[in-house]
Amino acid sequence: MGVGPARHVMNVNVQVTPPKSIAANVARMTTISQPCIARPQPSGKGRGLADAAPRHASLTGLVRQRWSVRVGSATVLIRGAEPHDLAAVAEMHGRCSPQSLLNRYRAGGRRPAVAALENQLREPLSFVAATYGGTIVATAVASPDAEHGRDAAEIGLLVEDAWQGWHLGRELMSHIAGATLVCGYRELIGYPATSVVAVQRLMIDVGHTRVVVGPDGTHLHTYLAESAALGLGPVRERLAS
Ligand SMILES: CC(C)(COP(=O)(O)OP(=O)(O)OC[C@H]1O[C@@H](n2cnc3c(N)ncnc32)[C@H](O)[C@@H]1OP(=O)(O)O)[C@@H](O)C(=O)NCCC(=O)NCCS
Q: With bands split at pLDDT 50, 70 and 90, how would you rate the model's confidence at 20?
């Protein structure tokens, strides 16, 4: 069972970007209170490495390549998800609070069905973060967004409660942004329930973020900056070594 990183070590070695002041962050956000205009539904499954633009050809091999980060005193390995991760991912969901599950799935704080988890793991842009002991402590996925057109991907992040607040979410957001850009998406859409502020703070580092308040709740759009490609985990790992 995951117990989270040791709390007495305050240092997380991998920082995606230097910390910014809250004021600077807020200045980069836009909030609009109009629902989005419905666009045509995307067809087919999510984009993958075969959809990468020629200018990103040198990066495609890095999208699902594993890399590791220090989280407190623990080392966490992040890699592309595989169908055989299902049991460990389901166990991780069992350790998450209803609040976290609500924020990830907006389904009343319940866990998703096993079939839904299985589908998530089969998405081309699906990732897991695991301890060296094999315990999965976070998942991240980008999949086609049914509401916002074919260039938009819905992002789904879930960090197990005991591992939250240690920059694992930032690490995963940075990688997902890079991976989606490389695979031809231009926009990330996030649908947090009560974690809008936390998700905003993650998104503003990867592009221009706006908050949309609609009749069905609040969601966030981030138009990806071209520099987001450099946020791929293995790219940052190489740059730091
Ligand atoms: C949202 C979530 C992914 C963030 O992951 P994390 O590892 O806890 O976040 P990080 O440690 O990387 O911190 C990211 C930023 O969010 C902020 N943050 C984290 N939790 C917060 C909270 N409860 N309220 C406000 N800000 C918060 C942090 O301060 C940090 O910003 P800063 O570096 O500018 O100070 C994680 O908390 C989670 O899985 N929550 C439940 C599911 C969810 O909300 N998913 C999002 C749906 S897309």
A: very low
**DSSP-derived pairing of the beta strands 187-190 and 217-224:** antiparallel
Is 71 inside a domain boundary? yes
**CATH code for the domain of 79:** 3.40.630.30
- Ligand 1 surroundings by CB, under 6 angstroms: 100, 103-104, 155-159, 164-170, 190, 192, 195, 197-199, 201-202
**How many domains does the chain fold into?**
1
Distance CA 3, CA 10 (A): 16
One-letter amino acid of 46: G
Beta strands in the chain (DSSP E): 29-32, 67-71, 74-80, 126-131, 136-144, 152-159, 187-190, 207-214, 217-224
Find all residues with CB under 8 Å of 23, minimum gap 6, and list them: none
Copy the structure tokens of residue 53: 């633009």
User: Can you tell me the distance from the alpha carbon of 181 to that of 52, in angstroms, rounded to the nearest whole number?
Assistant: 8
Q: Which of 75, 95, 104, 102 is nearest to 161 (CA)?
A: 95
Domain of residue 64, residue span = 20-240
- The answer to whether residue 138 sits within a structural domain is yes
Q: Which two tokens stand for residue 137?
A: 């402590």
Residue 14 domain-assigned (yes or no): no
For the chain, the average pLDDT equals 86
Ligand 1 midpoint to CA 188 (Å): 16
Q: Inform me whether the pLDDT recorded for 21 exceeds 90.
A: no
For residue 9, being part of any structural domain is answered with no
